[in-house]
């Protein structure tokens, strides 16, 4: 069966510090991978998606970047965090675009 | 650009009541419509997926319907239980899933 791992669960970082959140999927190959952010009162916002290694599409201009160094690994990064980067970050995957989307357990990021 | 709206934003019902959550979307060119459940501080759990060619899907006490022509989907929960308390989100999918802000459901014992 397929599983998705996301870590850390909670992160508190000072403004201006770097960020690296990692997501891995097990039990499947060539998944479509997504990073979402959920901020209070704003719903789920798609940040990045990837259909293959090294292929990254950005949905919203921002202070963040994403990379996919391996087939089942998706990384969300920032060189310098802003207060506005605080939120609940969720990684997700799907096998095909018309199939169910499965989410990781999320990372609560607080930038202080 | 796809926009998804969920009504109501919050709903409180007594245990045992049947209820309907509503979802509307602006772009009918979707592959599917998905319903999710989210508990506080947790990720989203997939409940039901309705393909664009389908009208409804059922899982246990849950039934979801899709009307592409009107841009609407409903999630029907039968005989609600306190364990159903959570936020319910719908998402319309083409190459990506666009979500509504969710309905916060509270089922009171």
Describe what this molecule looks like in 3D.
The complex is a heterodimer of chains A (112) and B (109). By secondary structure, chain A is mainly beta. Chain A has no helices and eleven strands. Chain A has strands spanning 3-7, 10-13, 19-26, 32-39, 43-52, 55-58, 65-70, 73-78, 87-94, 102-103, 107-111. In chain A, strands 2, 4, 5, 6, 9, 10 and 11 form a seven-stranded mixed β-sheet that branches. In chain A, strands 1-3-8-7 form a four-stranded antiparallel β-sheet, with no helix packed on it. The model of chain A has no long low-confidence stretch (mean pLDDT 93). Chain B has no helices and eleven strands. Chain B is globular. The interface between A and B is medium-sized, with 23 and 24 residues.
The secondary-structure class of chain B comes to: mainly beta
Uncertain segments of chain B:
none
Low-confidence stretches of chain A: none
Span between termini of chain A: 39 Å
Quaternary assembly: heterodimer
Number of strands of chain B: 11
Helix content of chain A: under 10%
* Backbone CA Rg of chain A: 13 Å
N-to-C SSE string of chain A, H for helix and E for strand: EEEEEEEEEEE
Number of helices of chain B: 0
Mean pLDDT of chain A: 93
Question: How many helices of chain A?
Answer: 0
Broad shape of chain B: globular
C-alpha-based Rg of chain B, rounded: 13 Å
Q: Between the first and last Cα atoms of chain B, what is the distance in angstroms?
A: 41 Å
DSSP E strands of chain A, number: 11
Strand content of chain B: over 45%
> Biggest sheet of chain A, in brief?
7 strands, mixed
């Amino acid at each position: 069966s397929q599983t998705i791992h996301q870590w850390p669960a909670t992160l508190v970082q000072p403004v201006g510090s770097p960020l690296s959140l990692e997501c891995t999927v097990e039990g499947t190959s060539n998944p479509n991978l997504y990073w979402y952010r959920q901020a209070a009162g704003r719903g789920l916002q798609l940040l990045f998606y990837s259909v293959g290694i090294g292929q990254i599409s950005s949905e919203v201009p921002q202070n963040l970047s994403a990379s996919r160094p391996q087939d089942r690994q998706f990384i969300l990064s920032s060189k310098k965090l802003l207060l506005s980067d605080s939120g609940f970050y969720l990684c997700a995957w799907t096998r095909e675009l018309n199939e169910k989307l499965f989410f990781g357990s999320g990372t609560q990021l607080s930038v202080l | 650009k796809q926009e998804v709206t969920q009504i109501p934003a919050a709903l409180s019902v007594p245990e045992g009541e049947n209820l309907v959550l509503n979802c509307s979307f602006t772009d009918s060119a979707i592959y599917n419509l998905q319903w999710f459940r989210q508990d506080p501080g947790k990720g989203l759990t997939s409940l039901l997926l309705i393909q664009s060619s389908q009208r409804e899907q059922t899982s246990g006490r849950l039934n979801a319907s899709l009307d592409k022509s009107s841009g609407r989907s409903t999630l029907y929960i039968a005989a609600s239980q306190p364990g159903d308390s959570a936020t319910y989100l719908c998402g319309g999918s083409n190459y990506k899933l666009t979500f509504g802000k969710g309905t916060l459901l509270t089922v009171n014992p």
